[in-house]
Amino acid sequence: MKFINFEHAKKVAMTGLAMTSCGFLLWVSQGLSYADDNLTPTTTTVNQSQAVVAGNTTNSPAATSQQPITTQMQAAASQSYDQNDHGNYAYLDNVSLNPDGELNAAGWHATNAAQNRPYHYIIALNQNHTEIARQNITNQAVSRTDVQRVHNVYGAGQSGFNVQFNLGKAMNNTTVVNLISRYSADPNGNADYVDYYFAPVTIDQRNYACLDKATVVNNKLEVQGWNATNLAFNKNYHYIILLDRTTGKEVSRALVKNSVDRPDVAKVYPGIEGADKSGFAVSFGLNGVNFNHKLQLLSRYAGASDGNSDYVDYYFTPITDGNYSNQGSLDSFNVSDGQHLKISGWHADDISQFENQKFIIIYDNTANTQVASAKVTSVSRPDVAKAYPTIKTAGQSGFDYGFDLSKVNLLDGHSYSVVSRYSTSDEGNGGNGQYTDFWSAPVTYRSQQGYSVDQAKMTDQGLQLAGWMASSQSQSKRNAFIIILNNGQEVTRQKLNLTSRSDVAAVYPLIFNSANSGFNTLIKLNPAAITGNMQIIFRFTDDPAGNGNSADQKTPVYASNQGSFIDIRVNGRSVYVSGWHASDQSANKPYQYLILLDANGREVYRQRVLDINRPDDAARAAAPYILNSTNSGYRLGLTLPASAQGKVFRVIHRFTDDVNGNGNSVDLYSAPLLQYNMTANAINRYILQNRIGHATIQTNYVIPEVTDEYSRTSDGRPDMVVVHETANPNDSIYGEINYEKQTYDKAFVHAFVDGNNIIEISSTDREAWGAGYPANGRAVQFEQVEVYSAANFARELINGAYYTAYKMKQYGIVPTLAWYNRQTGQYGGTLWSHHMVSQYMHVTDHTDPDGYWANRASRYFGTSYTMGDFFELVKYEYRQL
User: pLDDT: is 270 or 62 the higher one?
Assistant: First the structure.
């Protein structure tokens, strides 16, 4: 025991603290005690009608008159003591309130004033100083030799006490207990006494509770927790009440018929009567419960059986806040494995704490019907938790489920939504309980198909093919075939066993079995059988032989005879040609020749090529599906005879089985050899020397489709280009375009150019109205906007030349300058000015762009510029394409 200098202990305070798991503070406290060191004995009469007798205490004179005269203290006082010590000493060592409402107090009280006052009482007063209990402890003195060693006063060695008061019905009305130790000459303790008032003991009248659990089980809201308070003393009915704060109404209440043992609560709150039986576990039906509202539970102890009067309430924190965020996303709608409709995504909503059964539903929006549903397990989604930190359940909001495709019939063209549902019911699709849904954005399921040829290489044994093929129709057409055609006629077919292609599945999740769409196989055939255009069919069919009901995909045609004249240089009599030429029919044709033609297609010279079978990367990349394309390069330098000089217009590369270059042969023709001269005109030289580039062609089709394909050509495609000039010195390219947009019903062209722009305003697949017929029925037409400065004019010319060359390449037109035979009235050529149309076709009187070109050429370059000069620029651009 720790000893205290009691000579100076006039005031003593003691407080006991404990913290519950729900964060409430329990305390029984003793405030300031007081007594005088120099005691003058007093006599106080206590109104007996105010006294409350509890335990072994009695206020009956008959009872106390039978107590012995000689007390333990009197017996102990026979020893010597300091009769000059006038102090009144006491100390309350311990005070506590047990769960049964019993106040325990232990301490001591010693003073010389106790001599001739043999009766020792401990008296309890409430906060109003009204006596609520007393106990006569005259013959229950506790030995305290420690006190005697410090205070040598009368009876100090037997001055201890240990008492218990049952506060009983006074518990819920008592907030403070004032304990008094009294030595009295009166057997009842009411007269001729000396008192020591200990510091007040505070009785905890606070209300403690904790809601441990609120969840839905078997479509019922189950709640568990505890509520302990001294205010509930003699209130024998315990209710748990569910309130809807959104509507302001009580939803339901449940009587706690069997309290739940809570020794943990009693341990933390020993001063609360009934704490050890303060637990509850009740359930509520969900009729009238709306988890989207703000719901709150309260615990009520009531004196009335219906719980509506004489009660004390504890309001728990609301279990729902009425302001939930319902978020979700569909990450995948996937049939690529050919067995399942795989659904994955997430749905985060804190109502799922109560609507804790999770379902995934496939809904056909087109047919307005449910297709399938499944009860699923939540999947961890830390990414969602990071994105939505305020949603408690976001971390377990994921779903990932596969529906058996043999039981789910997805219909072509139908719109489907994936519904993620949290429900209180675990039956069916959860629709019989309370539920919250998240509807994904609609997914339209369309019958799709696709293929890719990743590799196609012709070998002596046949065509080595690798790639993938997939079709939604393969669900009912399980046989996969590759069919090879030559000029539309079947050469061979082969059945496939498709292999895994996860990359295809990732790109085409809605194509059935796209995850198993790969192939890498040798299609056996004789390469010589491919004499024209080869085509490949990828077929799914219900026929094991490859016929029957089928879903076919055809590749574009693969020309079996291809090549490129990489370099053709004709300089006087010297000729140099290099390139590559590959043909599936070259296997039995060991000889190669170059044949030179004039402008009329007549041969002017031929020579055998000996530098052959050169590796060529361009050929390998462009035509791997042609036999020996990898080593199809060649080159030849030759000297023309004088008779052929200046006549070379086109070149043929030939494979043949004849040593002289005749016999069975396969030919490849070069494009016309356009000889351009960029040095004759000063403006063209300026463009070449300064490396002036062209703008990019922009398309902005502001002209409605008021015309059809070209009416004056045999194939409905253009066969010439007409150059115009606006003759408007004060307008921009955008002003001119806007003007034609407003007046297209009178006239319009296909495009406009200036120094910085090439803008196509109408599709060149249809006629324009810019030059009159027959030119309109044949020509791509563009306007030049008037520009200023040498640089702008040069850039405008190169933009116009590039646009002309680009369109000629697009439509297979060879650049030739317009011409006219006055004697026969015939005209020809593919490059025309508006002035030439007027002169040669006699349909308009316009002279553009001659005047504009002459003005700008003279002003900025001190020279002239004609259609002949522009023709050289067009050929230059054509050769670059």
Answer: 270
Beta carbons of 265 and 21 less than 8 angstroms apart = no
* Model confidence, pTM: 0.54
Is the CB of residue 407 less than 8 Å from the CB of residue 365? no
List 568's β-bridge partners, or say none.
Answer: 577
- Residue-wise pLDDT for 242-265, tens only, equals 999 999 999 999 999 999 999 999
3-class DSSP state of 3: coil
CA distances from residue 588 to 458, 492, 655, 663, 700 in whole angstroms, order as listed: 15, 22, 9, 12, 52
Beta-sheet strands, E only, within 649-795: 650-656, 665-669, 697-699, 720-725, 751-753, 758-760, 779-784
The CA distance from 641 to 704, in Å, is 57
User: Above pLDDT 70, what percent of the chain?
Assistant: 90
Tally helices (H) and strands (E) across the chain. 13, 49
Q: What are phi and psi of 527, to 5 degrees?
A: -55, -30
DSSP code at position 101 = S
Q: Which residues pair with 651 in a beta bridge?
A: 596
Phi, psi for 187 (deg, rounded to 5): -55, -30
Return the biggest CA–CA distance within the chain. Answer: 167
| 407 close to 418: Cβ distance less than 8 angstroms | no
Q: What are 36-53's pLDDT values in tens digits?
A: 444 434 333 222 222 222
pLDDT at 555: 97
User: In this structure, are residues 724 and 781 in contact, taking their beta carbons and an 8 Å threshold?
Assistant: yes
Alpha-carbon radius of gyration of the chain: 54
Token pair 């140099």 is at which residue?
576
Residues 860, 876: Cα–Cα separation, whole Å = 22
Is residue 712 within a helix (H) or strand (E), and if so which, with residue range? none
The one-letter amino acid at 674 = L
| Both structure tokens of 23 | 């964060």
Handedness of CA 255, 257, 263, 269 (dihedral sign): positive
pLDDT tens sequence across 629-664:
999 999 999 999 988 887 888 999 999 999 999 999
* DSSP track, 388-416: -TT-TTGGG-EEEEEEETTT--PPTTEEE
Cα dihedral 57/61/62/68 (nearest 10): 70
Cα(463)–Cα(526) distance, rounded to whole angstroms? 9
Residue in the block written with tokens 């762009």: 849
pLDDT at res. 571:
78
* C-alpha distances in Å from residue 288, one per residue of 250, 284, 291, 319, 399: 10, 10, 10, 16, 29
List residues bridging with 697 in a β-sheet: 758
Q: With contact defined as beta carbons under 8 Å apart, do 327 and 278 qualify?
A: no
Chain centroid to Cα 323, Å, comes to 22
Residues 6+ apart with CB under 8 A from 287: none
d(CA 416, CA 373) in angstroms, rounded, equals: 13
What is the token pair recorded at 99? 């769960």
Proportion of the chain in helix, strand, coil states, percent, rounded to 5: 20, 40, 45
Residue type, 522: L
Cβ neighbours of residue 824 closer than 8 Å, sequence gap 6 or more:
none
Question: Cα–Cα distance between 535 and 556 in angstroms, integer?
Answer: 6
Between helix 790-810 and helix 682-689 the angle, nearest 10°, is 80
